[in-house]
Every structure is written in structure tokens, then in C-alpha cells.
Write a sequence for this structure.
């Protein structure tokens, strides 16, 4: 085992940034060489608490701290800018979700990474999709990859365990505004859900989105969304999400020619069909039929290591000479963002949109909403520096 430590700098000391420095303190093979925030008091306090240097501009951190790896944990619009500054200097990047606010910026960011790799072939770019490590989702990925369901016909995901109060939205001046955050539930809470959807099923060919703006909260962005997807090969998908439902539901149902999987409340059930469903549909002489199937509960290790630290450990391991796969390569962030932008573009234009989506059309819609916004943010109630972020992390077990 190498005794060398990876030198890490953190850009952004909000709630998620604080979570990063907390778990980094549990890792023996890293050294936090600097923290950065435009709020000088916040940067100074974090630096003092963690025995490191404070910076107030990202470029200063990149150029003066001696870091090898930058964690980008700032508001969403700044993800591409800071990541590209790091790439130009040959600095590895771990980017918080989402990769960007709009696909044009994400594509520019990915192009900058690919260009930088030509000069720095070992350059790494990862994105923090820690929900891929959750045991229930990891088991679903394994089962689908094995072909156990045969041809997929439908995936329906009701994920409403994203409750956010008005106090949450009032806790940051940038939150839930077109200019500050670039969107609502699809941009902030659901990048993980959208990533998981495309990780399991791939991107659809067609997106039909229906987004409700400020339906349950005093915000100017979406807080309830229903989307319909059409995939190559005929599979259809449904996604229902909101930040205004208690108690929330997280139910994922996947139907294939050979069976059905249901993940809900920490239980994964497998309904094995007695014969292929599509052939039965074509060939049976029964006009009405019902299969009485007793589902099998699929076991998975609920205690398997998961979360942010696992994702970071995988990246650090690679930087220290390992050859393991990252949990999520940075360019994979474009998939979740394509779904988010596609749903909103469809809703804005009140029509289905095809994939890949028209990035210019989405950006024009976003910029028009920024230009014409008359929304006035309430007085900000800032959360404490040690706010526990665990309640905001999704679960599949």
C-alpha cells in the first residue's frame, strides 16, 4: 500500500462542501491542502477547523495550494468554469452533481477535459453520483445486465422522497431561481435519480415532460414533474417526482418479457414469469388470463459500503496507481443532464422532444426566464455550517 497522500483542495464550503471535508478527515491517504469560498469568514472557519489554508478565489487555490485533485462543490452554474480551470492546469476533478445547468455547458466542459487529456494523459475527471453505490440499485444493475428480465417493456419510477420545506428554499439566495440554480427538483434533488434511470436503462429516443412551476412552494422553478420516455426497442418509462409530498414514495418497477422487478421500502422482489410474456400474448387462445406468481425476495448486502466516501476512495485509489473503475466518469454526467433539460424543454414548448436534445433551444428558454424573472427572493435564512446533509441523500435500501 502506497504511503503517498493525494493532495486535495475543496472549492465551495456550503452544506455539501462541509460534508466533503468531514469524510475526507476519515481517509488516511489524502491531505486537504486548501479550502476555498468567496465568503471569507466561511473559508477561514473551515480552514481553521481542518488545519489547512483558506482561499477566496478558485484560481488562487488551483495555482497556489499544490493540490492534485479539486472537488467542485459550488452552485451549479460554476461547475464547468472551475472544472475547466482545473483541467487547463492538469488538475484532476471530482465534480458535484449536476455536471452543469445545461447541456451546452456540459459539452464544453467535456471537450475541455478531452483536450486537456492530450497534454495530461493521466488526467482524471469523476462526478459524484454516489447513489450508484447504494446496494439496492447496485443489485438492480447486476440483474438487468444479466438479462434476467429479457427484453424490457416498461420502467415506472415514483420517487417523491425529496421533501423540501419553504425554509429549505429560503436558506440560500441562489436556491430555486433560474439565475442562481438554473432549475428546481430536476437540477438539485433529482440528478441522482436521472443518472440512475439512464445508468439502468440508457437514454430514451423521445421525452415528454410536464413540469409544474412553484406549485407548492414560493419559488420560480419546478417542484413537481411527470415525464414519459420512449426507448429504442420499444421500452417506455415514467418518472414522477416532487419536493412536496409526505410521506414520500420511492418505488421502481421494471417489467420485461421474462419477469418483473420491484424495489421499494428496502425490499427487492422478482416476479419470474412461467413463460415469455410477449410470446404468450401472441400465441394463447385465452382471451383473459392471470398468472398467480409468488415473488422471490432478492437478497443484497444492505451494509455494503456506499456513499460519497466510497466514490472518492475509488478515485483516490486510481490516482495512487490503482486500475479500478471509477463509480462514475465525469462525462457520464451528460446523460442525467440530457434527461433534465429534455424534460424541461418539452414542458416549456408543450411538445415531445427527441434525444439528443437541442441544447441551443433549451438555453434560449432558460435565458428568457432569467431575463423576464420578477421573482423576489425572501430574506435568506442560512443553515449552520455543520448542517447534517444525510437526510438529503437518497436511499434504495
Amino acid at each position: 500500500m502506497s504511503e503517498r497522500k493525494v493532495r486535495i483542495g475543496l472549492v465551495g464550503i456550503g452544506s455539501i462542501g462541509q460534508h466533503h471535508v468531514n469524510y475526507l478527515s476519515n481517509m488516511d491517504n489524502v491531505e486537504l491542502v486548501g479550502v476555498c469560498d468567496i465568503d471569507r469568514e466561511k473559508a477561514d472557519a473551515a480552514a481553521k477547523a481542518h488545519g489547512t489554508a483558506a482561499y477566496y478565489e478558485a484560481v488562487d487555490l488551483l495555482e497556489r495550494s499544490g493540490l492534485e485533485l479539486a472537488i467542485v462543490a459550488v452552485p451549479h452554474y460554476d461547475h464547468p468554469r472551475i472544472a475547466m480551470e482545473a483541467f487547463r492546469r492538469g488538475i484532476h476533478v471530482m465534480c458535484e452533481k449536476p455536471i452543469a445547468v445545461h447541456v451546452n455547458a456540459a459539452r464544453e466542459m467535456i471537450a475541455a477535459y478531452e483536450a486537456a487529456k492530450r497534454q495530461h494523459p493521466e488526467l482524471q475527471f469523476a462526478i459524484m453520483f454516489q447513489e450508484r453505490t447504494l446496494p439496492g440499485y447496485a443489485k438492480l444493475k447486476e440483474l438487468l445486465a444479466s438479462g434476467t428480465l429479457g427484453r424490457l417493456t416498461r420502467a415506472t419510477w415514483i420517487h417523491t422522497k425529496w421533501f423540501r420545506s419553504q425554509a429549505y428554499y429560503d436558506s440560500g439566495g441562489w436556491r430555486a431561481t433560474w439565475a442562481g440554480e438554473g432549475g428546481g427538483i430536476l437540477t438539485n434533488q433529482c440528478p441522482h435519480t436521472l443518472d440512475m434511470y439512464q445508468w439502468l436503462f440508457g437514454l430514451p429516443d423521445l421525452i415528454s415532460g410536464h413540469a409544474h412551476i412553484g406549485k407548492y412552494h414560493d419559488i420560480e422553478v419546478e417542484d413537481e414533474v411527470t415525464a414519459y420516455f420512449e426507448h429504442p426497442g420499444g421500452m417506455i418509462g415514467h418518472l414522477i417526482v416532487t419536493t412536496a409530498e409526505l410521506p414520500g414514495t420511492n418505488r421502481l418497477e421494471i417489467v420485461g418479457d421474462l419477469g418483473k422487478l420491484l424495489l421499494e421500502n428496502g425490499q427487492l422482489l422478482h416476479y419470474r414469469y412461467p413463460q415469455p410474456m410477449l410470446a404468450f400474448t401472441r400465441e394463447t387462445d385465452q382471451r383473459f388470463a392471470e398468472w398467480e406468481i409468488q415473488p422471490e425476495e432478492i437478497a443484497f448486502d444492505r451494509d455494503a459500503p456506499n456513499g460519497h466516501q466510497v466514490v472518492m476512495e475509488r478515485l483516490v485509489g486510481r490516482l495512487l496507481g490503482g486500475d479500478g473503475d471509477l463509480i462514475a466518469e465525469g462525462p457520464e454526467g451528460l446523460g442525467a443532464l440530457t434527461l433534465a433539460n429534455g424534460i424541461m424543454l418539452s414542458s416549456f414548448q408543450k411538445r415531445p422532444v427527441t434525444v439528443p436534445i437541442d441544447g441551443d433551444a433549451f438555453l434560449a428558454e432558460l435565458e428568457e426566464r432569467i431575463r423576464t424573472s420578477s421573482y423576489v427572493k425572501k430574506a435568506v435564512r442560512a443553515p449552520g455550517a455543520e448542517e447534517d446533509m444525510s437526510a438529503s441523500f437518497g436511499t434504495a435500501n
In short: The longest helix spans residues 103-119.
